[in-house]
Amino acid sequence: MKTFLQSVAQDLYSKIGNDLSRTAIVFPNKRASLFFNEYLAAQSDRPLWSPAYVNISELFRSLSPLKPGDPIRLVCELYKVFREETHSEEPLDDFYFWGELLISDFDDADKNLVDADKLFSNLQDLKNIMDDYDFLDQEQEEAIQQFFQNFSIDKRTQLKEKFISLWDKLGDIYRHYRKNLSELGIAYEGMMYRHVIEELDTDRLRYDRYVFVGFNVLNKVETRFFQRLQDAGKAMFYWDYDVFYTRLPHEQQPPYVHEAGEFILRNLKLFPNQLPETAFDVLRHPKKIRFISAPTENAQARYLPQWVRTVVKSDTEASKEKENAIVLCNEALLLPVLHSIPPEVENVNITMGFPLAQTPVYSYINALMELQTTGYRKDTGRYIYEAALAVLKHPYTRQLSATAEDLEKQLTKDNRFYPLPSELKKDAFLEQVFTPQNGTAAICRYLTELLREVAVIYRQEKDEEDIFNQLYRESLFKGYTLINRLLSLIENDGMSLHTDTLNRLLTATNIPFHGEPAIGMQVMGVLETRNLDFRNLIMLSLNEGQLPKAGGDSSFIPYNLRKAFGMTTIEHKNSVYAYYFYRLIQRAENITLLYNTASDGLNRGEMSRFMLQFLVESPHDISRQYLEAGQSPQQSLKIEIRKTDEVLQRMYNAYDIRRHPNALFSPSALNTYLDCRLRFYYRYVAGLKAPDEVSAEIDSALFGTIFHRSAELVYQDLTANGKEIRREDLEQLLRNDVRLQAYVDTAFKEEFFHVPAGEQPEYNGTQLIHSKVIASYLRQLLRNDLQYAPFRMEGMEQKVTETLEIETPSGMLPLNIGGTIDRMDSKGDTLRIVDYKTGGTPKTPESIEQLFTPADNRPNYIFQTFLYAAIMCRKQGLKLAPSLLYIHRAASESYSPVIEMGAPRQPKVPVNNFAFYEDEFRERLSALLQEIYNPEEPFTQTEDAKKCEYCDFKRLCKK
After folding, report:
1. What region holds the PD-(D/E)XK endonuclease-like domain (predicted)?
2. Are 550 and 576 in contact (CB under 8 A)?
């Protein structure tokens, strides 16, 4: 395969010889010069004088006394002019992004030498000017008539009024803006181009000869520049094309213009090619072409290893790798592609920008900005936990602060939703991080200082060759300079910006990859392929909407006016992309084109129009294939943990009270075993548990805990002078809403906010609602107790235990059973064991057996209460009435919390004396404990899928 640049190098050397020192070779972009230089050097076995290589932008820059303006500075200067001309109070944040749009329009107008006075004149004047169509060709004349046909000046609407009022000012803004920039000695690119062509003196050019290689669509400035140099005898032109889309369509019946060749044909007429047409009939040469449809974007990237193995396997030497290219029409695929390139590809060169938004530097800047804006409450002087956590968890903070990890754990443990800055300043670096900042300038200074600290990490890194290390250094530099640039504009020019604008600027920033372009497989975007040819080519995301890009660029200048004044339109862009597509495939030998068939969001799941067009026009056989993910349905295997000697030993060690006197089997542990044996193993044998986390949400368990503590505080006060609970005390308390709310607030402080008693908690809306609901439940409890009073409070949140001995294969094993009883009260000869319930539905067990039989409707709360009742039967002589007090159902005067038993549709018997059930309960309890220690009974998964819904070990179990 002979590439275009190879042909140019050969022809140029044959015409000029060894001394190219007075020659400048001009390319549309930089990359081509590196490949060209290699081809030129290969033309001679002796040293030769190298030509100068420039791209077109650099050439105009070198010929202009003006310097290219920094994009941020250009927008800010335009904003000043806009404010002066329109007297608008619009903030810079709102103006910034449509200011960029306006500069883009001015740039296009200047590059196409538009008479701005006529374009931006008053629309009525413009209509009058257009009556004299001398300066328009027929197509432009039709376009301007079309505009005024659609845009009636006389019929005004509010939207039209806004457009006209701004349009009438654009001419003044344009002139004033250019004047200001000239005084500053800076320019946007189009202004610089226009200035160069207006002041151009071909006799004073630096080089004797300018060779223009591989251009396509030319704006008016470039066309005039080429003509001036051609007239001066200083220009040579090399155009790259193929007769397939230039001459051959004209020979068809009827003849037509192929959009890929539209601009090349114009250029060939104006500036004849140095190479003969016979060198450009290569698209009809034999090719292997495949169109492949993929079900997703990522599936295309995952296909790369297979493509490398099948298509490129013969080109394994490094010298051939550069003949292979992966072209991304959707540049968001860069990361999946990089991760999919197989190890047999030794060298890769990436000719694309890497998004700053996908680097740790951006995530750190973003976390710090959120910390100082939405993450800090000025009214209370506190940070929000989530914002502080994002900073503390970031790898940069972890590397720069030895105390960050411990601080994060402490905040989680204490449930600190709104920590004070003083709580977070545990070392010098964290003091810098958690110092509140006020205003954008202060935040920019704060960010630059912290990024300087981060730079220390990379200075200490030894592995400088690591590609990611280099990339992150570059991203750090890019982020730092952008923030610094904004800071200088705020401080020196008095500009006012919000952090949202900074964030949007950072998001839009790309970092260049540094590599050796002439080595390795090329990964590039469509624009970077100009002038380059590859033997093996794969294009990804060749969808309609990706190539050509969907929709026209936004502009203030309506389409018909752009067309009338010869500015860039969507047709220009479509023709340019058609040329890029056909030019790229014309010399390739193995061509694989992939597109995504999924229709989601903006993607319609259609192949690009260029693929469809090529399918119709192509002289080659095109193989059509589709990608399909290999289906390997994996059934999750049942998990069964055998009670090996090691497992049993761990169980003995954990619960044998001779080794651990405080160890006990709680009702929760036994309920867990009955619900799911595997969950019991994970939690109580293996010792696994869900990590702590801070949540502003109050789940049902935490809601119950806060209620329990509130009730305990109430009865602590009521029993301060004796255990008797009297009706008058309850009535007095029920009338005191403030006091009741104070109990709830105290419980919230202790169980939820974890703040000192003297500190006022910060409730959010949902927490406040929960607080009021708990207070109402507390009143309901007191009203219920008012019906039962007088009674004697025997204990609250009281821990009870009992030692049992069970028979195991290793002999008798002493175990503790027990837990914490919410409340015990007595009246007459009855002791009630009361368990508060703030949710759920009361259940009625048929028998004691049902409590020990795993099932969906097993009444586990009743099992817990009966266990406590069994323990207390042996500790005192009163009759025991186990009770479940469902607060949210206790409003009726006849409500009794005493548990009832009985079969469905049969009379229910209240359990007023647990002694009748105690023996059977203990017998079954002993059998259950023996089963837990039985080596023949493995730990298995539950059959009831409902038990898995909220299980902490759901992902581990995969049931």
Report:
1. 665-958
2. no
Q: Are 336 and 298 in contact (CB under 8 A)?
A: yes
Q: Which two tokens stand for residue 452?
A: 């300087």
b vs e for 776-786, b when ≥16 Cβ sit within 10 Å of the residue's Cβ?
Answer: ebbebbbebbb
User: 912-919: long-range contacts (C-beta < 8 A, 24 or more apart)?
Assistant: 912/830, 912/879, 912/881, 913/879, 913/880, 913/881, 914/866, 914/869, 914/870, 914/873, 914/879, 914/880, 914/881, 914/882, 915/873, 915/879, 915/880, 917/848, 917/866, 918/869, 918/870, 918/873
Which tokens in the block code for residue 1? 């395969």
Residues 6+ apart with CB under 8 A from 372: 436, 437, 443, 446, 499
Q: What is the pLDDT of residues 771-829, one digit of tens each?
A: 999 999 999 999 999 988 899 999 999 999 999 999 988 889 999 999 999 999 999 99
3-state secondary structure of 240: coil
HEC string of 697-752? CCCHHHHHHHHHHHHHHHHHHHCCCCCEECHHHHHHHHCCHHHHHHHHHHHHHHHH
Contact, 887 vs 873, CB < 8 A?
Answer: no
- Residue 512 bridge partners (DSSP): 353
What is the band of 319 on the pLDDT scale with cuts at 50, 70, 90? very low
Contact 519, 318 (CB under 8 A): yes
- Render the burial of 435-471: b for 16+ CB within 10 Å, e for the rest: eebeebbebbbbbbebbebbeeeeeeeeeeeeeeebb
| Separation between Cα atoms, residue 311 and residue 593, nearest integer Å | 13
- Encode burial over 591-629: b for 16+ CB neighbours within 10 A, e otherwise: bbbbbbbeeeeebeeebbbbbebbeeebeeeeeeeebee
- Rounded-to-integer distance, Cα 564 and Cα 543, Å: 31
Q: Which of 511, 236, 231, 585 is nearest to 350 (CA)?
A: 511
Cβ–Cβ under 8 Å, residues 568 and 108: yes
Q: What is the 3-state secondary structure (H, E, C) of 114-167?
A: CCHHHHCCCHHHHHHHHCCCCCCCHHHHHHHHHHHHHCCCCCCCHHHHHHHHHH
* Phi-psi category of residue 566: left, alpha or beta, with phi > 0 → left and psi -120 to 50 → alpha: left
What does 401-459 look like in DSSP terms, one character per residue? -TTHHHHHHHHHHHT-SS--HHHH--SHHHHHHTS---SHHHHHHHHHHHHHHHHHHHH
Count the neighbouring beta carbons within 10 Å of the beta carbon of residue 568. Answer: 21
Contact 111, 219 (CB under 8 A): yes
pLDDT over threshold 70, residue 191: yes
What CA–CA distances, in Å, run from 334 to 352, 370, 629, 810? Answer: 8, 28, 21, 62
Phi-psi sector, 415: left (phi>0), alpha (psi -120 to 50), beta: left
Q: Are 380 and 373 in contact (CB under 8 A)?
A: no
d(CA 242, CA 237): 16
600-611 pLDDT, tens per residue? 765 678 899 999
pTM higher than 0.70 for the full model? Answer: yes
Tokens found for residue 359: 């680097």
Strands 235-238 and 209-213: parallel
Tokens 């107008």 belong to residue? 109
Instruction: Say if residue 875 is exposed, middle or buried (CB neighbours under 10 Å; 0-12, 13-18, 19+).
Output: exposed
Phi, psi dihedral angles at 572 (to 5 degrees): -55, -50
CA torsion sign for 123, 129, 131, 135 is negative
- Count the residues in the chain: 959
Q: Which residues pair with 353 in a beta bridge?
A: 512
Write the single-letter amino acid at 543.
N
CA distance 350 to 332: 14
Which stretch of DSSP H or E encloses residue 773?
helix 765-788
Q: In whole angstroms, what is the distance from residue 309 CA to residue 303 CA?
A: 10
CA 216 to centroid of chain Cα atoms: 37
